[in-house]
Amino acid sequence: MTTNVMILGAGFGGLELASALSERLSGEVEVTLVDQHDAFVFGYSKLEILFGHQTTDQVRIPYRGITRPGVEFRQERVLTIDPATRHVVTDVAAYDPDVIVVALGADYDLAATPGFVEGGFEYYSVAGAERLRDELDVFGGGRVLLAVLSIPFKCPPAPYEAMLLLHDRLVARGLRDASELHVVTPQRAPVPVSPETSAALERAMAERGIAYTKRHRVYGIDPDARVAHFKDHDEPFDLFIGIPVHKVPDVLVEAGLTEDGWVKVDPRTLETPYPGVYALGDCAETGIPKAGTFAESDARVVADEIASTILGGGVHASGGTGLCFVEFGNGELGRVDVDFHARGGPTAPLLGPAPAYAAEKAEFGAVRRARWFGV
Ligand SMILES: Cc1cc2nc3c(=O)[nH]c(=O)nc-3n(C[C@H](O)[C@H](O)[C@H](O)COP(=O)(O)OP(=O)(O)OC[C@H]3O[C@@H](n4cnc5c(N)ncnc54)[C@H](O)[C@@H]3O)c2cc1C
After folding, report:
1. How remote is the CA of residue 206 from the centroid of ligand 1, in Å?
2. Is the CB of residue 78 below 6 angstroms from any atom belonging to ligand 1?
3. ∠ CA(61), CA(326), CA(161), 5° rounding?
């Protein structure tokens, strides 16, 4: 008898899990992979869109390319989940799978920051990256304030990557001398798990005259007066870029799967308190930062759990490992190999930055594209 596995969300984590189950449990599982969209976009491709290196069409990978045996993709929107009875309702059908894996990622709550919808820009969504790209094309120089509006947020290095690449863009357009760049974050360091990467990013910003304020928060902006509100002062801006407040998709709150804002799981197995219901990636609270590489590592944990339920015994991956490439601007990238569960505590050494890692990052994307989509 085959086991029906329903994966909700075909992002970084859902795609890796579908591939792993097809590879390891061929004939044992039937996987239904559901996503509201018709194509996948790597998170880092939003930087490509933002700086005009690639168009949206060039970075979209259509789900119709999924041809893995035992995996069926359906473009549907998940409306309700009853984890106790494992009943899922989408805008197209109702399902009663043996196993549910929730991989719905994180949503953005732009309205949580007063004035942001009216007067701010973001590049964390494809539409936001396109809008900010167009704004940068006509930007004539001035004060750019980039603020991380809450923790947790996806991809800890991404705010710094964007600011370093923006520096390059303004230099190329002859506007850097007419501009002031400032990054603000509530965090104590750019990439807390990697002191080396944090120091290198801080050094890169200092070398380029990019102001950096940590342990501070922007609570809202006044779009008319063009000032950002901090706790005890206001700061003027000409262009405000925010890393939006992140939240779990509403459908997961309504399903009763959340605690303290994110899906509650056993960090070892990624099973929720409901038997046969797992959660992975950005929507789950595992104590690990939100990034595609960790969603992928989570997928290996869940694949092991499902495999051991079906086949018995087996090994259990521990998650929390990943490979990140960090853009430093000027054609240079760093490579960070992260292991949150290393003996003696988390490790995340930095290699580079150096131009050579650009090819490795391209290879990272190409390998996943081939594995998940066969192209
Ligand atoms: C600018 C930027 C740069 C980044 N750079 C990197 C990087 O270099 N390396 C890295 O590892 N990570 C990076 N990330 C982070 C990475 O993109 C995410 O952490 C990763 O995609 C999380 O994977 P996930 O599977 O948990 O969720 P996602 O990949 O977000 O997938 C969730 C899926 O669920 C679907 N969904 C949501 N709600 C519903 C619903 N109700 N019904 C049906 N489908 C639904 C969504 O359409 C989506 O496809 C970056 C992110 C950004 C914004």
Report:
1. 31
2. yes
3. 90
What domains does the chain contain, in order, with CATH numbers? 3-106+248-317 (3.50.50.60), 110-246 (3.50.50.60)
CB 73 near ligand 1, within 6 Å = no
Tens digit of each residue's pLDDT (9 = 90 or more) over 107-136: 999 999 999 999 999 999 999 999 999 999
Q: Are the beta carbons of 64 and 43 closer than 8 angstroms?
A: no
List pLDDT tens digits, range 200-243: 999 999 999 999 999 999 999 999 999 999 999 999 999 999 99
The rounded distance, in Å, linking the Cα atoms of 93 and 167 is 48
Q: Model confidence over 303-329: pLDDT tens digits? A: 999 999 999 877 787 889 999 999 999
Residue of 340, 61, 333 lying closest to 200 (CA atoms) = 333
- Tell me: the pLDDT tens digits for 324-373? 999 999 999 999 999 999 999 999 999 999 999 999 999 999 999 999 99
Q: How many angstroms separate the alpha carbon of residue 256 from the centre of ligand 1?
A: 22
Helix (H, G, I), strand (E, B) or coil at 298: helix
